[in-house]
């Protein structure tokens, strides 16, 4: 779906409770965790779904609101007053205009990153399918996220280990960034996933650009090829599910790498089609 195709008529007011930078100060990327309370008894959301944010559009855009989607980055929690508390992870963005070459601040991301505790904002949704816990509690999960695409997995993994303690399946989390400082939640400042390293079924594997100061893509090749035999064995098992989150471009990059893991493009296309047909390959891309 295109952004303009989403129904934004059902709106809720959210209040910022806290906002905190979660990438290190010396990282070139500023990503903030913004915790908010959403009022209204009709509002509910599941781990892995998206929220719409209606940022002020500004006269230069000719729109009342600027609509963008963000993944819930933790466990939604019902508060005593009936409100739902949830975190978003937002990367402060800018972009280069293709026509004049000038750099502009991203409207929604900068709006959100500039909010202060006590500020209100308008949200819509939720949208999208939630990542589901497999019915088979011994199922293997391969989770692949790039940049802020890791956000839904943060909430999903917390949900698994907090609310589904009987889950015994193996989890392999592949997380990509251009530099080690850009690996959200997996740095010395804030390593959320380290909470689960004592669980013998969980492992997080990083994928970094080989030239971090260039604009090279994340090196999924090295991260996945180095585990190729293990990953391909998992992909052939009947109880493996794959969840992918991040920019849409990640899909083509992964297809190229998995074709090498599988031994040929045709073998991979056939296996991916089988996974999709069995609803065991799920993409949350934007």
Mean pLDDT across all amino acids: 80
DSSP helix fraction = 10-25%
Relative strand content: 25-35%
Poorly predicted tracts of residues: 179-183, 208-216
Q: Main sheet? A: 7 strands, antiparallel
Termini distance? 9 Å
What is the count of helical runs? 6
Category by helix and strand content? alpha/beta
CATH topology of the largest domain: Rossmann fold
CATH class of the largest domain: Alpha Beta
Strand arrangement in the largest pleated sheet: 4-3-9-1-2-6-5
By CATH, the architecture of the largest domain is named 3-Layer(aba) Sandwich
Number of spatially distinct domains: 2
The gross shape turns out to be globular
Overview of the structural elements:
By secondary structure, this protein is α/β, with parallel strands linked by helices. It folds into 2 domains: about 120 residues, Beta Barrel (Elongation Factor Tu (Ef-tu), domain 3), CATH 2.40.30; about 150 residues, Nucleotide-binding domain of ferredoxin-NADP reductase (FNR) module (Rossmann fold, 3-Layer(aba) Sandwich), CATH 3.40.50.80. The chain is built from 6 helices and 14 strands. The strands form 3 sheets. The protein has a 7-stranded antiparallel β-sheet, with helices on one face. A 5-stranded parallel β-sheet has the order 12-11-10-13-14, sandwiched between helices. Strands 7-8 form a two-stranded antiparallel sheet. A hairpin with an 8-residue loop joins β3 and β4. α5 packs across α6. The longest helix has 14 residues. It is globular and about 50 Å long. The protein starts with 10 loop residues before the first strand and ends with a strand. About 5% of the residues have low confidence.
């Amino acid at each position: 779906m295109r952004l303009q195709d989403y129904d934004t008529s059902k709106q809720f007011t959210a209040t910022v409770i806290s906002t905190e930078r979660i990438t290190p100060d010396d990282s070139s990327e500023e990503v903030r965790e913004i915790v908010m309370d959403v009022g209204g008894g009709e509002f509910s959301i599941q781990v892995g779904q998206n929220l719409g944010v209606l940022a002020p559009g500004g006269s230069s855009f000719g729109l009342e609101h600027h609509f963008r989607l963000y993944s819930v980055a933790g466990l939604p929690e019902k508060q005593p007053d009936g409100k739902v508390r949830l975190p978003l992870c937002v990367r402060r963005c800018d972009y280069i205009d293709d026509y004049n070459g000038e750099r502009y601040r991203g409207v929604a991301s900068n709006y959100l990153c500039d909010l202060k505790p006590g500020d209100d904002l308008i949200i819509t949704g939720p949208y999208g399918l939630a990542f589901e816990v497999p019915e088979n509690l011994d199922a293997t999960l391969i989770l692949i996220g790039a940049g802020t695409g890791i956000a839904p997995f943060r909430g999903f993994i917390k949900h698994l280990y907090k609310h589904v303690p009987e889950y015994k399946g193996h989890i392999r989390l592949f997380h990509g960034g251009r530099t080690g400082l850009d690996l959200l939640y997996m740095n010395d400042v804030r390593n959320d996933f380290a909470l689960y390293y004592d669980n013998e079924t969980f492992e997080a594997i990083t994928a970094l650009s080989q030239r971090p100061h260039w604009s090279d893509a994340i090196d999924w090749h090295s991260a996945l090829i180095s585990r190729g035999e293990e990953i391909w064995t998992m992909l052939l098992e009947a109880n493996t599910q794959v969840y992918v989150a991040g920019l849409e471009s990640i899909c083509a990059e992964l297809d190229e790498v998995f074709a090498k893991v599988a031994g040929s493009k045709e073998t991979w296309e056939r296996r991916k089609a089988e996974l999709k047909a069995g609803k065991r390959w799920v993409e949350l891309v934007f």
